[in-house]
Design brief:
InterPro entries: Cyt_P450, Cyt_P450_E_grp-I, Cyt_P450_sf. This is Cytochrome P450. It holds the Pfam family p450. It comes from Hibiscus sabdariffa. By secondary structure, the protein is mostly helical. It has 13 helices and five strands. Strand 3 and strand 4 form a beta hairpin. The protein is globular, with a radius of gyration of 21 Å. Bound molecules: protoporphyrin IX containing FE (HEM). Protoporphyrin IX containing FE binds next to helix 1, helix 9 and helix 13.
């Protein structure tokens, strides 16, 4: 494993106006910075922003009770709005904030259309298939987000994630190891917004689809929610660690339908023989998690949707932190998902809230 490194360029990103893994230093720097966004303290501080977005989505569904709901679109808007709010360190504020939000909604629906098309990409589908127009719109959006953040910096003592990045951008010079160019700031933002929202949306859709196909499991999930949350209460993040059955359902969905089935491609830094196969230096290597997650040597009845297999495990076994090579929906090693702590919180909060608030059936 330690001879495999991530490829230094991303297919389909060559036309993008901002930097994405374009220099060897940058790919490691971005990892550190993305982790900076997702510290426990920062995530806890912005719980209100996530909650607000989920509550808005619930009231949107409530107004449309009885009509078909596009779960993907709903999850996409919650995830993107929550992520951008966290990046800005607060809500979209004032007239400028409103214009930006409208602008982002337009881009979001264009992105949603692209995401809905057949997946031909090997990395983040949305990034790889960005057309020039979307690319341009995204660039404009990132510039307006950066403008809002620059203006807010003057008024607020507490620096949001973006303000922190802009601070580093200001310090930009050759000698400064932590310096950033404006293009790198944009690249990092695009990576976080697109990388985080497409995957979260996909997992909300798959989990809801599995539950609607398995009504007994749906009922058990709802019972779990009633027991932990209480029938007349709204779901809070403090409830999430106690929702053991929903946790098992989500893990089982990750197993059968990982959001990035081939993870992020690696390349071999030197020639090696692995499991009897020669892998020449410089080969692009894909780890097929989709296949490992369905391997009958590892999983009993691998094609069966059975959340219980994750209920009976010993603590730590089959977690998704990249320590167990049989189950790696968030990858493993240096290129492991840097958004995992936020992904966990957003995914469970959206699913738990939707499932606890409504009775779902197919149209
Ligand atoms: C359910 C939601 C998510 C899933 C299933 C997921 C899954 C993944 C996977 C499989 C990888 C590649 C790991 C590897 O190849 O070893 C990855 C990378 C990444 N993810 Fe996530 N992710 C999710 C949400 C998020 C969120 C919310 C963010 C940010 C806010 C995020 C940011 C990233 C970034 C920046 C990388 C690239 C890391 C690197 O190359 O160093 N992800 N994700």
């Amino acid at each position: 494993m330690n001879t495999l490194r991530t490829h230094t360029s991303r297919q389909g990103c060559n036309d993008i106006a901002f930097d994405s893994y374009s220099s060897p230093n940058w790919k490691n720097k971005h990892k550190v910075l993305a982790s900076e966004l997702l510290t426990t303290a920062r995530l806890n501080a912005y719980y209100g922003l996530r909650r607000e977005q989920v509550m808005k989505a619930i009231s949107g569904v409530f107004k449309n009770i009885g009509k078909p709901i596009d779960i993907g679109k709903l999850a996409f808007l919650v995830a993107t709005n929550a992520t951008i709010s966290i990046i800005l360190g607060g809500k979209f504020r004032g007239e400028k904030g409103d214009t930006m939000k409208d602008h982002f909604k337009d881009i979001s629906s264009e992105l949603m259309e692209l995401i809905g098309k057949p997946n031909v990409s090997d990395i983040f589908p949305a990034v790889a298939r960005l057309s020039k127009e979307i690319n341009q719109s995204l660039n404009e959006l990132l510039e307006s987000v950066i403008q809002v953040a620059t203006e807010e910096e003057k008024n607020e003592e507490k620096l949001g994630f973006l303000q922190l990045l802009l601070h580093l951008e200001g310090k930009n010079n050759e000698d400064n190891a932590s310096s950033l160019t404006m293009n790198q700031v944009k690249g990092l933002l695009a990576e976080i917004v697109i990388g985080g929202t497409d995957t979260t949306t996909t997992m909300v859709e798959w989990t809801m689809a599995k539950l609607i196909q398995h009504l007994k499991i749906l009922e058990k999930t709802k019972n779990d929610l009633t027991n932990v949350v209480g029938l007349n209460n709204v779901v809070e993040e403090s409830h999430l660690p106690n929702l053991r059955y929903l946790n098992a359902v989500t893990k089982e969905t990750f197993r059968l339908h990982p959001a990035l089935p081939l993870l992020v491609p690696r390349y071999s830094a030197e020639s090696r023989n692995l499991g009897g196969y020669n892998i020449p230096k410089g080969s692009k290597v894909f780890l097929n998690m989709w296949s490992i997650h369905r391997d009958s040597h590892v999983w009993d009845n691998p094609l069966e949707f059975k959340p219980e297999r994750f209920l009976n495990d010993v603590p730590g076994k089959f977690d998704y932190f990249g320590n167990d090579f049989r189950f790696m929906p968030f990858g493993s090693g240096r290129r492991k998902c840097s958004g995992l702590p936020l992904a966990e919180k957003m995914l469970y909060l959206i699913l738990a809230s939707m499932l606890h608030s409504f009775e779902w059936k197919l149209p």
